[in-house]
Design brief:
83 residues; Translation Initiation Factor IF3; four-stranded mixed β-sheet; 2 helices; 4 strands; 29% helix
Length: 83
């Protein structure tokens, strides 16, 4: 699946925040979503490039990928199990 083909169910913007906020906000949003839904997280903290995939691995969620545009990272996470 190409990232450009992904239609997220929820888009959450955390631009202007830094660790640990992007992780805690991701967890909060994933808890509210249904299994199978996709979250697009938009952040400008470069730490998310490593932190979000690691969080997905730890929590059993599926990290679909990311791209960077104009200093913002767009990360895609699929909820595959309850937190």
């Amino acid at each position: 699946m190409e990232l450009s083909d992904i239609k997220p169910d929820v888009v959450h913007d955390v631009v202007g925040t830094f660790c640990p906020v992007p992780i805690s906000e991701t967890a909060k949003m994933i808890r509210q979503m249904k299994i199978g839904q996709i979250l697009e997280l938009i952040a400008d903290d470069p730490g998310v490039v490593e932190d979000i995939p690691a969080w997905c691995k730890t929590t059993g969620q599926e990290f679909l990928g990311l791209y960077e545009e104009d200093g913002e990272y767009h990360l895609f996470i699929k909820k595959v199990k309850e937190l």
